[in-house]
Write a structure and sequence with these properties.
This protein has 14 helices and no strands. It is mostly helical. The chain folds into 2 domains: about 130 residues, no CATH class; about 150 residues, no CATH class. The longest helix has 26 residues. The chain is flat, with a radius of gyration of 20 Å. The two termini are about 25 Å apart. About 40% of the residues are buried. This is Integral membrane protein. It comes from Limnoraphis robusta CS-951. InterPro entries: CHP02587_IM, DUF2391.
Length: about 300
């Protein structure tokens, strides 16, 4: 299904626009996901007053505008202040949408949540997302566009086909170590907190399934769609787990393993706990861990 979506042919202008938005969203997830698992931020957002909401949005917009004058999430060079001005509005909108979706997914916003409380949580959580969107091209290096990309793709494809079995194994091991490292770094910062256990109490099977799909989709988007480092090369890798879909699933399983190890390390799980508790906590921690794992694969 993911492959069919990725292979859809759109108008080049729309395709470029979608790629830019995905790149910005990916940067937002990489930068903002740890704060989504912070009880204090949830609480602060619950009691945020409208005047303060506007002040936070204004300050966040100014920070994003500053970063967009330097880089931004689009490939095009901004020649005027108006370009950065409108791109900053887009960055803030992307951040708000991403933060809203994740807060709904984690059931921090439900139908019973008041509008004022929901807005407060969204605005607080969108701050790191917006900064991540603006810095998306700086967080991880980006593939440079090349006019002779078709010829290079063919040459790379033939090179990979001729590569030895040992090289393919090395690529797989490199992805495994990168995923495990990135996942453990993120999971290490979240596992000792009480947020995972609190989220686990409110979780239900349909929402857990939705979190699994979101984890797979976001990590696939970061590695294979956003246009970060070595994206074209990675899509041509050969090997057992080197196809985009199989690599995404395999890496997600590694991220779940890292989550379990961190939960055991910090004694949030024990072998006396029921299996459904293991499943809930692991899937919930697996969301940020899979994003960290995606960043780890890009870094190696």
């Amino acid at each position: 299904m993911i492959k069919k979506i990725h292979n859809l042919r759109l108008n080049p202008v729309w395709q470029k626009e979608i790629n830019d938005i995905i790149r910005g969203a990916a940067g937002g997830f990489l930068f903002g996901i740890p704060l989504l698992y912070t009880f204090e931020v949830w609480q602060a957002g619950s009691y945020l007053q409208p005047p303060l909401m506007l002040c936070i949005l204004a300050v966040t917009y100014c920070v994003v505008l500053f970063f967009n004058r330097i880089e931004g999430f689009r490939r095009k060079k901004r020649k005027t202040f108006s370009d950065a001005f409108f791109e900053s509005i887009e960055a803030l909108a992307i951040a708000v949408v991403c933060a809203t979706l994740i807060m709904i997914l984690l059931q921090r916003i439900t139908l019973q949540t008041s509008l004022e409380e929901a807005l407060g949580k969204i605005i607080f959580e969108s701050v790191p997302f917006a900064i991540g969107v603006a810095l998306s091209r700086l967080i991880l290096s980006e593939d440079e566009p090349n006019n002779s990309s078709d010829d290079q793709d063919k040459n790379q494809h033939s090179t990979f086909k001729k590569s030895s079995k040992k090289a393919r194994v090395n690529d797989t091991l490199s992805d495994l170590s990168g995923t495990m490292t990135g996942a453990m770094i993120i999971a290490f910062s979240i596992a000792p907190t009480d947020e995972v256990t609190e989220l686990g109490v409110a979780s239900s099977p349909p929402w857990l399934i939705a979190i699994i799909f979101a984890s797979l989709l976001i990590s696939y988007m970061i590695v294979f769609v956003a246009g970060f480092s070595r994206q074209k090369e990675r899509r041509q890798h050969q090997g057992l787990f080197q196809a985009p879909e199989s690599e995404t699933i395999f890496s997600y399983l590694i991220s779940l393993l890292a989550s379990v190890l961190m939960l055991l390390f910090f004694q949030k799980l024990s072998f006396a706990d029921p299996w459904f508790l293991w499943m809930r906590y692991t899937i919930l921690l697996g969301l940020p861990a899979s994003i960290g794992g995606a960043a780890g694969r890009l870094a190696v």
